[in-house]
Amino acid sequence: MSQTTLGIIGAPGLLHLDGLADLRRISVDTPFGTPSSQLITGRIDDVRVLYISRHGEAHEYSPCAINYRANIFALKSLGAQWCLSLNAVRSLTENIAPGTFVIPEQFIDLTHGRCATFFSDGICAHVNLSTPVCSVLKDAAFHAASKVCTGTEIKVHDSGTYICIEGPALPTRAESVLYRTWGGDVLGMTAMPEVKLAREAQLAYCVLAVAGEYDSWRPRAGDKEMEQIYARVGASVALTHEIVVDLASRICEAAPSPFAAESLSGAIMTDPQHIPPQVREDLKPIIEGYGADD
After folding, report:
1. Which DSSP category does 50 fall into?
2. pLDDT tens, residue order, the chain (294 aa)
3. Cα(171)–Cα(3) distance, rounded to whole angstroms?
4. Which terminus, N or C, of the chain has the lesser number of Cβ atoms within 10 Å?
5. pTM above the 0.85 mark?
6. Displacement of CA 234 from its chain's centroid (Å)
């Protein structure tokens, strides 16, 4: 079995990366351009870690300007089997208070204009996205977060629906109220098309999100309450590194769910003889072993 490699996509400085062993930076180029940042590589015990700053190291990329394909492809080409997406979200329900960890299991994609597939030029594939996240990674994230948060006031939700909007502007109050009627639990701007691309790349993917504050459906808190909210959110973010370390130990000997690891089985529709050679070469890290690379 190949070395367990955990890809992580998050905000600059979100993890205490100096706590990883064998820390170094590498630059990666992909057929889809350059990832948002250099990849930081390291090790948590026997698990290799690859970290990308989603918005760039200076937070220079807006959600609609992130090169999602390059980020996911870089992780795949460097051997990642798992992909943990660290997100900041806004709550659409009273049950998810600011500072709460949420591990959503469903997504509604309201983005537009983002490149959401690797299979768009000379090759077609239809992956099954009915179960968007890997159940094995989701359970590992939930148990790790629950363990780390034991003894604190921080709650962990192991389900929910993530509404992904284009951004960068926040939604109107009318939109926020509408999303609640759809069953939305949290609102963010970056999980799509990451979810779709990770499934196409056969990466076991899940989101570990921290609710920053309530979205605009709820009147904004006063200054004093906001100070308390920021303190709770800061406490949650500070625990992220501990959660990742515990999660790494849980997936070290685990296997991704078949939905993730075998997502291209029967999904590629194009006759291999009609796939352009350059497309086969570019997509080799993804399609190798599925006949389309012959």
Report:
1. E
2. 478 999 999 987 666 766 788 889 999 999 999 999 999 999 999 999 999 999 999 999 999 999 999 999 999 999 999 999 999 999 999 999 999 999 999 999 999 989 999 999 899 999 999 999 999 999 999 999 999 999 999 999 999 999 999 999 999 999 999 999 999 999 999 999 999 999 999 999 999 999 999 999 998 877 777 787 778 888 888 899 999 999 999 999 899 999 899 999 999 999 999 999 999 999 999 999 876 555
3. 42
4. N
5. yes
6. 20
Classify each residue of 42-69 as buried b or exposed e, where b means 16 or more C-beta atoms within 10 Å of its C-beta.
bebeebbbbbbbbbbeeeebebeebbbb
Mapped onto helix, strand or coil, the DSSP state of residue 143 is: helix
For residue 2 the two structure tokens come to: 């190949």
- How far is residue 252 from each of residues 43, 73, 201, 287, measured CA to CA in Å? 12, 22, 20, 25
| Structural domains of the chain, ranges and CATH numbers in brackets | 5-287 (3.40.50.1580)
Question: Residue 190 has which token pair?
Answer: 């970056």
Q: How far apart are CA 84 and CA 47, in angstroms?
A: 13
Q: Which two tokens stand for residue 154?
A: 């921080």
User: Which token pair is 222?
Assistant: 């006063």
